[in-house]
Fold this protein.
Amino acid sequence: MADIKPTAPAAAAKANTSVQPKKSSNSISWIAPLVCIILGYIIWRFVIGNPSNFTKPDPNGGFWPDHEGAKGGLARMFLGGIIVPILIGLFLTVLTFVIERFLTVSKAAGTGNIAEFIRKVQFHLANKDVDKALAECDKQKGSVGNVMKAGLRKYKEMIGNGELSTEQKVLNIQKEVEEATALELPMLEKNLVFLSTIASVATLLGLLGTVLGMIRSFSALGDSGGGEAAQKLSQGISEALYNTALGIGTSAISIIMYNVFTTRIDGITFGIDESGFTLTQSFAANYK
């Protein structure tokens, strides 16, 4: 049986594309939450739970010391229970990914106004000056500029191609833009899942910590009586509500920042779509 060899057009298609895949690893993104939760425990156990913050510290210490008599509001947070360090860890995780996404999205947005950049490219293409349009992409330095640059390179290549029809050339440009877009968009949306997940989980964990604290409070109430019982109950409820406050606060920040980033990403995505439309329409109009 004769060997089957790949056809020339298929091989040429792989060789002609100017879009190169971006190598990236998401392992650090999964390590970061674990590190933040460990750091949250350290803050809860050794900073907030420092024996000097209590009138009756637990001399044995251990993983979860049984300190009593908190001297201040911060120390009472320690008495909220073992859910508190997890919530502190989630809050640190939110801060970590907010900083990471802010740097990434700011870089992807590039320099200058995206709409103004597209207008400049349209002007240069109308004058059939592709090199100046490419220079504008170098100045933009963002995801829209990267997609536009990939499309312009194919645009320039198609101008000198005398074998394909105008429709085929436009399809090649469109395909190049789609390939460049497929590489840019995942980087923009990366790690947003952590913010959206924490927005839901933090509130539930806060409520869980509150319920566990209430269970301990009413259990202690059953072991004592009189005015002392009422005092312990009020203290226990106050300590349990720290979990709710931490959970709701963390969730609120996550939701706000998630919406901020998705709005900015939508603006970049619109610019990318506009870039592809600009290139195909310009080529179809100028090189019939």
The two ends are 46 Å apart (CA to CA).
